[in-house]
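The passage that follows is intended for readers who have already worked through the single-chain material. We present the inputs for a multi-component assembly, then the predicted structure in tokenized form, and finally a short commentary. You are encouraged to pause after the input and sketch how you expect the pieces to fit together before reading on.
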Amino acid sequence: MAVLSYLTTTQFDFGAVRLLPKELERLGMRRPLVATDKGVRAAGLLDVVLGTLNDGAGLPVFDDTPPNPTEAAALAAFELYKSAGCDGVIGLGGGSAMDLGKAVALLAGSGGPLERFDPLLGGARHIANVAPIVAIPTTSGTGSEVSVGFVVVMADGRKLTFASPKMIPRVAICDPELTLGLPPALTAATGMDAVTHCIEAILSPVVNPPAEGIGYDGLRRAWRYIEAAVRDGADREARWHMMMASTEGAMAFIKGLGAVHAMSHAAGRLPELKLHHGTLNAVILPTILRFNEGTAPEKYERLAEAMGLSKAADLADAVIARNRALGLPGGLAAMGITEGMIADLVPHAVADLSTRTNPRPADAAAYADLFAAAL
Amino acid sequence: MAVLSYLTTTQFDFGAVRLLPKELERLGMRRPLVATDKGVRAAGLLDVVLGTLNDGAGLPVFDDTPPNPTEAAALAAFELYKSAGCDGVIGLGGGSAMDLGKAVALLAGSGGPLERFDPLLGGARHIANVAPIVAIPTTSGTGSEVSVGFVVVMADGRKLTFASPKMIPRVAICDPELTLGLPPALTAATGMDAVTHCIEAILSPVVNPPAEGIGYDGLRRAWRYIEAAVRDGADREARWHMMMASTEGAMAFIKGLGAVHAMSHAAGRLPELKLHHGTLNAVILPTILRFNEGTAPEKYERLAEAMGLSKAADLADAVIARNRALGLPGGLAAMGITEGMIADLVPHAVADLSTRTNPRPADAAAYADLFAAAL
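Having made your guess, compare it with the prediction:
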């Protein structure tokens, strides 16, 4: 068992899920709300996790998390939390379930409404307490199990990224066994999410060399093993490395993210399209790699090195080729986004927290061009 | 200002020392004991630090830290801590002063004697509390400002490494300004200490990819800037990178260290020779790089990459050449160690905590050969 002792205590290895009872006890968590979604339940993973606990069958479970967590879903889950007398949250699933769990933990510890904590308005300082969180990822992934943030689509349609060190889960249980059944398309999409996290975190101009070092390691790992994990989901070694890369990506993005995430958050809001965050990141990444070129030549060389490419390699081309090999869409148009939609997406990208740490400033005009280029 | 939020909150940049009052306030530390040494005082750095505080001149200062902290010195400092009514420790200096400060904080929080906490006997579990510690390094360095451990030469002559997550300083103030006056010889020795930390941490078989990622970044930094820092102590860029590499080295060695440290701890005990920990590490490192060859070929390639060498480069040769360029001794014999001394050193190396995480097992016979080879 690898124990990664950072602000989150992460238990990492095949079989880690068996440590859940001990970790709950260590945190003094007697009655957790399990925040998850129907996909996780259908995959049998909820049963696996509850099966490790003596009283697992009796725990309150909220499995209505939508593909992108909404304020309404968070409030509904919070109602269940309160009525069931919970004292903490287990977030079990992909980024959505874990993020919904974080939202509930925040509401439980500090009270609502969520918009009080809007980071674009300095709202993080209003966070008083946060109920304890144990995060158990089932994708590789958003890395939400170790990250400071969570994303919620508010009632007014805005997609807000909440961020505070207080939101970091106390415990993460990273058990690659839970991802063996993740289908190829999701493995590809969430794997490229991890790749994008590492790259955008590294390119962020925020100074944090340890976080960058973690990011380069994560990128190396994800770039090397993502095709194997997609080709053969039962490849345990590949699954282990993809989950580690995912966790490392989130540890790295304490530095902030960039324009890729600003754009994918904007496009991810479109309710009728239900676009996957990871797929959006993968598809948009080449455009932003070109946009950012020249801002940090030395970082680009180290990125190429981590990706096993020659120093002068074209990173955008490498990502395009990899997306194709993984069966991911070739552009946003293939995902259903049209030129006509761009004007509505642009302001959301401009307003996104991640825009602030893109190495090259991007305003509305730039985003309009970038969305067009990414079609 | 770079803020590195890990288990230690590290304020890192030129001028960071001005944040000391704020950090003390944040920790609720009203009357710290300043643990330092006469060299730091003579360099004017104690005045710089005390000068940032309103009541700096009135703080109790223990400046009798020997080059390697002893149990006697720790007890004497603890007496001052108690009589002055202190509520925390500021460790200001190189590894010795910071380690002595840690020892005092442990005694203050958990009571003595120190041997209760001997990690070779599982003593870390007896650590109840530790008084808060603010660590301010003046060398680059041991990285003790962010590490779990500290080393003390006990009354019976044994050099013990105490280690526990509870020993991690809450706050580190990493101000490269404080190292501008560090003489070339010490810059070289402490810089190679940081290099050795990164390398041994990476080679440790303990699984912790984030720590490894941090180690590779630290190694890259230290290898690249150490000659510049030695050649021109006023080179601010070089000093910044060497201090970052030092902090990163200690963040990496949460994975444990290896045979180099086992041997340098053993040789560092010899009271009449007063050998510098960093110099010993630099001189012994090539021998252990050869000894460990073949245990982790992929890591050796990544080490070479981080050091800007070709993949198949001989790492030991590169370190030998670098030591020569830095004016460091060519072997242990040049430092005063003779073949006749080896038999006494061997059992200490075998018993050292760091031996357990060397990638290749080393017993008494091996260490006898290794000391001889390193002469």
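Commentary: Chain A touches chain B at residues 2, 4-7, 12-13, 165, 206-218, 221, 244, 247-248, 251, 254, 305 (CB under 8 Å). Residues 209-231 of chain A form the longest helix (23 residues). How closely did your sketch match?
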